[in-house]
Amino acid sequence: MNPSGVDKYAFETGVYRPPSEGGSDSLLIRLTRNCPWNHCTFCGMYKTEKFQVRSVEEIKGDINAMAALRDDLATLSPGATVSHDGAMALIGKYPELNHHPGFAMFYHWLLSGGQTAFLQDANSLIMKTGQLVEVLEHLRHTFPSIVRVTTYARAKTIVQKSLDDLKAIRAAGLDRLHVGLESGDDEVLHKVRKGATAEIHIEGGRKALAAGFQLSEYWMPGLGGKALWEQHARNTARVLNEIDPHYIRSRPMRPWPGTPLAREAADGAFEMLTPAGQLRELRLTMAELSVTGRVCFDHAGNYWKNSRGRHLFSHSYEGYRFPQEKQLVLDLIDEGLKVGGQ
Ligand code: SF4
């Protein structure tokens, strides 16, 4: 039986997505709930939640509910183009939409042109290939305005998929993978229970590129603390050089309350770098990089200031082009190191 009333707009929306997907008003489609690994000691995202793969039927139902919402918003909008007036008219008809967890996200996505989508939650590639392909095809068919679909993926899962499967997923319309490298140093990776070695990250990253994906690798300045900062910097640069992804994104380490790493920081077992120490580590990482992609500081945690009290780095989602702007980044870091208080 088809749902009626406001129930026909029911769909599920998760909490997390990368900063670049928020900035581009991406459509959030929830394929799985939470994280299938969930052991990283610095991460507090899904700690109390159980991992679940949603059924294809459920996900397609969400996409159909979004399509119904799009169609009804357009019908009620002057000129049949989704507008504020159309949204007000629909909310007038169904006041419950004020409490719909995904209505605002979806409405803003439509207003922004409906071009990008992000598949939630932490590792969509864990779905069976045929199921993921079916969802992607339905999404692309239902919303032909979409030009880019991205998702989070674990390096180990990429390694476990065959190249043919990855190519099939790519062909079905998944464009970009956001992978959490965090560190290229095996000691750091082991300590933070990342569940992947440097070698797995290199193999996974290269395989993603071979399958034709755009690749975005996140690393975490400061994750080695005072004890391991230098090997963390050198080996992270080494792994990134071996992968040479399209994007490298900095998400500096900060203790997330309630996580094992925050507890280690509180009791002294993990000694945090000072902000200036993190910058010195960052300088070494940048100096060792010989990549041809973009290095981005688009996460809010890139807080360092310049001499004018502004952000040291651009928070642009496209970041700095390497190697052309490598010296600029090094100069900015040197400027930041002269600023007191960090
Ligand atoms: S794999 Fe990602 S989401 Fe899962 S625990 Fe680690 S950092 Fe968190």
In short:
43% of the residues lie in helices and 12% in strands.
Can you characterise this structure?
By secondary structure, this protein is an alpha/beta fold. The chain is built from 13 helices and ten strands. The chain has an eight-stranded mixed β-sheet. A two-stranded antiparallel sheet has the order 2-3. α2 packs across α3 and α9 runs parallel beside α10 (225-243).
How many angstroms separate the termini?
60 Å
Rg measurement, Å: 21 Å
Shape: globular
Structural category: alpha/beta
Largest sheet: 8 strands, mixed
Question: Could you tell me the number of beta strands?
Answer: 10
Mean pLDDT: 94
What hetero molecules are in the model? iron/sulfur cluster
N-to-C SSE series? HEEEHHHEHEHHEHHEHEHHEEH
Proportion in β-strands = 5-15%
Strands of the largest sheet, in order across it? 1-4-5-6-7-8-9-10
The percentage helix is 40-55%
